[in-house]
Each structure stands twice: as C-alpha cells, then as structure tokens.
C-alpha cells in the first residue's frame, strides 16, 4: 500500500458567490509526480494555495504530510517546499547568499547549509557562478536554482506553480530531470502546468475545469478513456466544455 | 533567532547593494544642510503674548490698549515673575513678552526717555521678527502721537531680546523640520517600497509558505532603516553643529529617544502603505503624498500653523511630523526637558500604536 501524503475531501474555496475550487477530493502518494492541469482561471492556483496554507479553505478538509490544513499550518510549512510561477529568488543577492538565506529560513544548521550548498552548486554546475548575483544568470539556470532551493530542506512535498513558464524546451527537459531526481529521493512533487508534453512526464494528472476536477488518472489511462492520441486531445476535449472565462 | 539574523542580513544586502538609493539615503540630508540658505517671512495673527505692566500709568495703559486692539496679538495681562515667563516660553505657551518697567510715564515725561523690554521666542525666527516689528511699530505710533500733542521730543526705547536664538538664525527652524522630512522619506517610502517589491517579485509568497513568521519578515525590514535613520540623525546633528554652529541645547539622549519614536511611527506608516499598494510605483506616490506634502505644509516648519484657516489647523494635528517638529525644536533650541514635551511625545506614541495596530491587523487579514 502506498503512503498518502496529500488527502483532500470536498475541499472548496469561495470568493463571495464565485466558487473558485469546488469540492476537490483526491489523494497524492509519496514520491509521486502529480500534475495539476487546467486552463487559466480553472482554479489550479487557488487549490494549490489552499494546500500550501496561503489561503484558508471555505469548507472541506485536507491533510498535507499528515497535518491538518486548518489546525496545523505551521507544521505543514516545515514539511513543504514551494516555487511560484513568478521567479522566487532575490536578484540582488548572489547564488550562495540565496541558498544560505532559504536554508537559514528553514532552520538548517550552519554545517548543513555549507554541505548542502556545495552539493547543490556541484549538481547544477554552478561552482564558478557561486559569487555572481542571481540577476546575471540566464533564466533557465535561475529556474533550476530556484527549484533546488525549494527542496534544500528535504521537504516531504514540493509544490511547483507553473515552474517552467517562458523557458526553452531544452532547459525544460533539464528542469524535469531535477524533478525526477527529487522524486527518486522520495519527495512528492505537485506541479501545475500548461504544457501538455510536461503532463506526459507526470505519474498521474488531474484536469480542472471551472473549479471541478474533471479527470484524474495516469496519462496512459486518460488517453485510453477519452480515446485520444495525446494528452493535448484529452485536455482540449475537457477544456472546451468550460463556461468560465479565463482571466 | 538564527532565522531572524539570516533574514536581517538579507535586508542589509538589499539596502547596501543598491548604490544609487544608498547615495540618496545618506547624501540627501547632507546636501539639504549645505544647500540651505533661505528663510520665509510670514504674517502672524493672534499670537499669544504676555504683557507685564509694572508702571500702570496713562502711557502704558494707552500703549497696551493699542496692542490689544491690533489683530496680531492675543494678550494675557499679568505680573508674572521672570521665572514664570521663562517657563511659559519653554512650553511654547507664549511667543512674546512685553514688559513695562516701573515709572514708565514718569521717565518719559521727566527724562524724555523710557524703556520697554520685548522678549520674543526666536526659535521660530520668522514669527519672532514679525512680532517684535509689530510691537515696535505700535510703540512708535504712540510716540508720534505724543510728539504731536506736545512740544517736548519724547523717546521710548524698545529693548528687544531674542530668546534662545540671539543671532536670529533661520537654520534653527530648518534643522528640526529637515530631520522629520528625512526620516519620513527613508522610513515610510523605503519600507513600503521594499515590502511591495517582495510582493511584486513573488518572493513574499515563498516567505509566507515557509515556516518563517510573517511578523518577523516585517520586523527584519525595519532593522536596516532604523539604523540608516539613526546614522542620518547623527550626521544632521553633527553637520548643524560643525557647519552651522548650532549645538543641541537639551539632552542628546532624549533627542535620540524621541527620534526613535518618530522612526517607528514612520515605519508603521510605511507598512500600512505597503499593505494597500500593489506596485512599487503606487507605494512611492502614496508615500510622497501622505508624508512629504503634509510635512512641508502642515508641520509648522515652513508656514506658521497659527495663520492657517481653522480646518487646516485641525488637520495639522494628525500630521505626526508636526509633533516631532515641536519636540525637536524644544530639545535642540530651547533645551527643554521631557517635562516640557511629554504631551507631544504621548500624542506621537499614540499615533504609532494606532498606525502599527491597524497595519498589523490588516496584514493578518491579507494572509487569511
């Protein structure tokens, strides 16, 4: 039996009359790469924000890494990592300073921080750029660094909100290598994306339409179920039913 | 604790890596002091003055009637001791004292010469000069009348004493005003911009997802600006002492303590602005709008508040820099102790608590 790390039950978020996320019920297992798909305005980001503790659910329940979203948000925070669609490193700090800052915020010891940052720089091949300001790095490198920093404290789950926006296909592929690597080490990856080729990389995916989860399975099974040749077809088939306008 | 230190260090990197802003932060007060060299004169109405008449004769009564009849003065007649007058000046209750010595009329008619002592609070140089000129004009006017009615040439000599600022230096007014402006600029604008920048860049979200307390994020932001502001207070005081020869008459420790209070009030204001703005530009414009303009116009350092229409006078009371300006002026120039400024201090403290309370509450609501 696989270990469940995220479990939601009718998780809902309302903004006045508008229901951004409607009765979401799903489970994510340890070490899994879970893709969260949906058109703009479908409710992906809202759902993710609830799981991260950035936004309080209106109703329903959710447990993240064994902790309740209502009662134990602080324990959740210690056990998750997060990388937003906006770039999340400080551009006027050097590579090393960024690593040390985030490692420090998560309470790693000095010895740990030193070892980790060396290992990380080596893994990314950034040894020579360690003392450079982040703004001097190309976007692709920054994004890889950003991800590595998000998992520096070995979180149980890492949430990635459209992590590869604006990145070329080659760098995206390299970025996914990092994701696989983390997943192999037992980190659960929860990723939202627009790119259908990325959806294929996931172990399981869910597709949100108008605040509801309309489909949830492995890419292969979804294609079979909708008798589609690619994830693209599955996605557009579902997304076409959307009544809500993208924002 | 270690987390906090890590984070504070990061804030220092932000401040000290941005060379242009850094130059502005430290260069601005120095440039302002050096460039300073203007003073504005303005008409004053209904100034609180004390008239002490030790003679009580026909001449003094007539002169006092004239003073009272003019719209410039709000006269309190009494025979206070010198000590009481001094105390009233220190507390800012009166702007001027006019003292008629004994035997005024006797001297005038027998020696053809009498003296009036006029003491003015010259820490507000514009007001002091204007007020003494008014009184002198009234006395001269009376003298002219006497000469017309009689044939003997009579002479009344007003002996004017400028309290606190005998050399009548306008810088005395300028330095306290500038201190409040510089501190507001740094604390309100820089803090709000720095918080909004994290929102814009998306780093704030990452911080909120981390176990780092949001309150600590705010606190860390405050630290570098408190230090920069204290350095600026020091450089302003040093420059005004070395360059303009204006030492601090009162307790320097008290001045720093009051400055710290004002710095925290400004930081709270910056936080409140950052919560209500989405972009750095918005934060900057709101900061300029709510700090610089009211400070220049309504704090009393450029234009006398006494002369403003009543609604503006009322509004000036909610401008924190007005109170800080009075405090600094009292300590620096009059050498006043805490007992003379506890009221202003209390008002400033109240403002800080209210602004900080509102911003922290709104900050928490935004998180939910």
Structure write-up:
The complex is a heterodimer of chains A (247) and B (368). Chain A is of the alpha/beta class. Helix content of chain A is 37%, strand content 26%. Chain A has helices spanning 44-52, 73-79, 95-105, 110-124, 139-150, 169-184, 196-201, 219-225, 231-239, and strands at residues 4-15, 18-29, 33-38, 59-64, 67-68, 80-83, 157-161, 188-193, 204-209, 212-217. Chain A has a six-stranded mixed β-sheet, with helices on both faces. In chain A, strands 2-1-4-5 form a four-stranded antiparallel β-sheet, with helices on one face. Chain B is of the alpha/beta class and 368 residues long. Chain B folds into two domains: 47-163, 3-Layer(aba) Sandwich (abc type-2 transporter like fold); 169-367, no CATH class. In chain B, strand 4, helix 6 and strand 5 form a beta-alpha-beta unit. In chain B, helix 7 packs antiparallel against helix 9 (214-242) and helix 13 (320-334) runs antiparallel to helix 14 (338-367). Chain B is elongated, with a radius of gyration of 25 Å. The model of chain B is unreliable at 37-42 (pLDDT under 50). The A-B interface holds A 52-56, 74, 77-78, 80, 82-93, 97, 100-102, 104-107, 150, 159 and B 2-3, 6-7, 10, 13-14, 17-18, 201-203, 205-212, 367-368.
Tags for this entry?
A: alpha/beta; 4-stranded antiparallel beta sheet; 10 strands; B: 368 residues; alpha/beta; abc type-2 transporter like fold; 5-stranded mixed beta sheet; 14 helices; 5 strands; 68% helix
Helix run count of chain B: 14
Number of helices of chain A: 9
Oligomer: heterodimer
**Sequence of secondary-structure elements of chain B:** HHEHEHEHEHEHHHHHHHH
Number of strands of chain A: 10
Give the biggest sheet of chain B: 5 strands, mixed
The proportion of strand residues of chain B reads 5-15%
Mean pLDDT of chain B: 82
What is the string of helix and strand elements of chain A? EEEHEEHEHHHEHEHEEHH
The overall pLDDT average of chain A reads: 87
Work out the radius of gyration of chain B. Answer: 25 Å
Helix content of chain B: 55-70%
Content of β-strand of chain A: 25-35%
Please give the alpha-carbon distance between the first and last residues of chain B. 25 Å
- For the largest sheet of chain A, list the strands in their spatial order: 6-7-8-3-9-10
Choose one word for the global shape of chain A: globular
Q: What's the total number of strands of chain B? A: 5
- Supply the helix-strand structural class of chain B: alpha/beta
Low-pLDDT runs of chain A: none
Q: Determine the structural class of chain A based on helices, strands and strand pairing.
A: alpha/beta
